[in-house]
Amino acid sequence: MWRATELIPVRHSPDLGPFLGVKPVTAFVARRWATLVCLSLPVIVLAGNGTWADERIPADPQIARLNHAGFKSRGHCTGFATRQGSVVTAAHCLPEIRTDTVHVLLGYENGEPGQHMKTPGASYRIMPGRDIAVLCDMHGSADGFRLSDTSPKSGARVVVQGYGAPRVHALQKTACSILSVPGDDLMRLDCPLPPGTSGAPVTLTSTRDIVGVVSASSDTGSLASWLSASMMTRLCN
After folding, report:
1. Cα(221)–Cα(203) distance, integer angstroms
2. Is the pLDDT at 12 greater than 80, yes or no?
3. CA angle 224, 229, 230 (to 5 degrees)
4. For the chain, what is the mean pLDDT?
5. By the 8 A CB rule, do 181 and 151 touch?
6. Is 179 strand, coil or helix?
């Protein structure tokens, strides 16, 4: 069964301290994800008990841990910055109450961000038909991730970098392959991914070329939404 890869802790005060009491999905994530799950029924499979394998890596100034906090809940996902000047994450990572604050912690490691931005969830634009949310009109950087219009291909080797459980305060890298691209919006990866990885960049191996954004995972694989330069231009212009 596919599950959103957002890390959702139980109720605590809305600060940026360590997150405790992890549970996999809240009601608002389930509601927002239901539409995408229905669209991806042809690629859903039942899975047994699986695990994920990752490698801890140094913080990247263009990859962020995204924290959100509100009256009832708080949690985190992953996001990333592009050369074009946008911050990208998964749409289901945004708080249900759109006025709640989203903290973007670029270059985060062990409680220390390289750069800290905060904005209400309503500032993000949602890409139609995709589990992608974008904060447009930010300052771009030459070492940001590059978007292209090259379609992802089955068999291509990719890398996912994110702040997944249980090491939620350190960036981790997971090597994957694209199993299939059944439609023009989703790709299926052969690597299961932990909670907290939603919104993480999916890049071609040994490059900073983006092909997708992590959306959900099962015990045997994961799903990512395809993202291209032209899609970003249409959304942000």
Report:
1. 16
2. no
3. 105
4. 80
5. yes
6. strand
Helix (H/G/I), strand (E/B), else coil: 149: coil
More confident residue, 24 or 62: 62
13: left (phi over 0), alpha (psi -120 to 50) or beta: beta
Is-contact 131 90, C-beta < 8 A? Answer: yes
Q: What is the rounded CA–CA span in Å between residue 176 and residue 230? A: 25
| Radius of gyration for the alpha carbons in the chain, expressed in angstroms and rounded | 16
Q: Which of 58-72, 181-195, 203-217 has the highest mean pLDDT?
A: 203-217
Query: Which of the given ranges, 8-22, 118-132, 133-147, has the highest pLDDT on average?
Result: 118-132
Position of tokens 């996001």? 79
Angle at 129 between CA 183 and CA 125, to 5 degrees: 140
Annotate 84-102 with DSSP letters as a single string. TS-EEE-GGGS-SSTTSEE
Enter the tokens of residue 118.
């905060």
Is the separation of the CB atoms in 187 and 141 below 8 Å?
Answer: no
8 alpha-carbon distance from chain centroid: 13
Give the pLDDT of residue 150: 85
Which residues are CB-neighbours of 183 under 8 A, at least 6 positions away? 39, 40
Q: Tell me the pLDDT band of 185, cut-offs 50, 70 and 90.
A: confident
Model confidence at 181: pLDDT above 60:
yes
Only one residue has tokens 């995709």, namely 130
